[in-house]
């Protein structure tokens, strides 16, 4: 089970590293420009690392990098706090839309496990997309109606909700996989 956890958690953290750095720095009251520049540098480093290793860069990594570069540029040019507060909603909607593609979660599962749990992973792909859309709406509500609470919200809720869903997702996948192994069968991935 720890092997499967590492296999799933490693790419998840790696893919989100730029956003994690940005959110942590923002939560620590680091200057917005510094937090944005640091998140951008980390997102660029993630893509660069994959390219240097000769590995394909996942669509979500490219999308994340483009969104970070675009939003970082707009933030630095405008310095407008309303743009900064709305920016995560735009990012969450774009990422949620990308997550509606079937099979995007396959890279988070060991290839030998895919025939066993591929159907469950596909369903959770849509659950993840739904969570991204819900987070986008929540961000807008907090940014507009509860502006003073926005830094605490953005520093805590997106990461906490992702970690919570990851825990539920991982537990359910492990339960289903173990049950199917005991039954001696695999489910074909469509």
Automatic annotation (TrEMBL):
A Pfam family of this chain: IspA
InterPro entries with a match to the protein in the record: YciB
GO cellular component, one term: plasma membrane
Keyword vocabulary terms for this entry: Cell membrane, Membrane, Transmembrane, Transmembrane helix
Transmembrane segments: 5-26, 32-52, 59-77, 83-104, 125-146, 152-173
PANTHER family, per the entry: INNER MEMBRANE-SPANNING PROTEIN YCIB, INTRACELLULAR SEPTATION PROTEIN A-RELATED
Protein name per UniProt: Intracellular septation protein
Organism: Sphingopyxis witflariensis
């Amino acid at each position: 089970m720890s092997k499967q956890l590492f296999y799933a958690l490693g790419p998840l953290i790696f893919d989100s590293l730029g956003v994690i750095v940005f959110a942590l720095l923002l939560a620590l009251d680091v200057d917005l420009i510094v937090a944005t520049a640091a998140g951008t540098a980390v997102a660029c480093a993630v893509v660069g690392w994959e390219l240097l290793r000769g590995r394909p860069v996942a669509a979500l990594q490219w999308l994340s990098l483009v969104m970070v570069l675009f939003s970082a540029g707009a933030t630095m040019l405008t310095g407008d706090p309303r743009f900064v507060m709305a920016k995560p909603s735009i990012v969450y909607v774009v990422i949620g839309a990308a997550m509606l593609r079937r099979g995007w979660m396959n890279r988070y599962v060991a290839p030998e496990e895919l025939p066993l749990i591929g159907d469950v992973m596909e369903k959770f792909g849509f659950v993840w997309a739904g969570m991204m859309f819900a987070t986008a709406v929540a961000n807008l509500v907090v940014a507009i109606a509860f502006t003073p609470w926005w830094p605490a919200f953005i520093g805590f809720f997106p990461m906490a909700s992702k970690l919570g869903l990851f825990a539920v997702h991982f537990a359910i996948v492990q339960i289903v996989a173990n049950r199917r192994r005991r039954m001696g069968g695999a489910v074909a991935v469509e």
